[in-house]
Write a structure and sequence with these properties.
156 residues, globular, alpha+beta, 4 helices, five-stranded antiparallel β-sheet, 10 strands
Length: 156
Amino acid sequence: MKTPELEAINSVRYLFLRELSEPKDNSLRIVVEEAVVNEASRGQIAEPSLPELAEILKGAAYIESTDGCRIFEILWDHYVAYLVTEECVGSCGKHDDEEFTGKLFRTYSKSHFLELLAKDTGGHFEPVVHHKLVCENHIIDVASVSDPAIHVIETT
């Protein structure tokens, strides 16, 4: 799967999950929003409650969606399984034996998620594909037998 929309998602530096829904049985809609380092907020972060953090945060800037950031809609007509993980927990673990292409929207040829599904499910007549969205607030794993449709729905 190589489309201009997929390349656009993988070209951004940060994503935030904004919406996840099932518009109809066994279909999945994910909306993610591009985010950037907001230079206008540099040095403007509120005084931390711990004095030890003051030095660390004095030149910091927020990562957030600003004017011009894109919103992407990703639609699967049918999914096999999906998993949403809080990003701090999902960022841990050993993953060097997995194989994927992409940056923030990954397509795996070998993954722990695919291994789990192979052990826990059956009856798939087509190969299952694993996609992962790596967002700042969540990590979303989606297994399906087809690639999703991706659309840029607007900019903020």
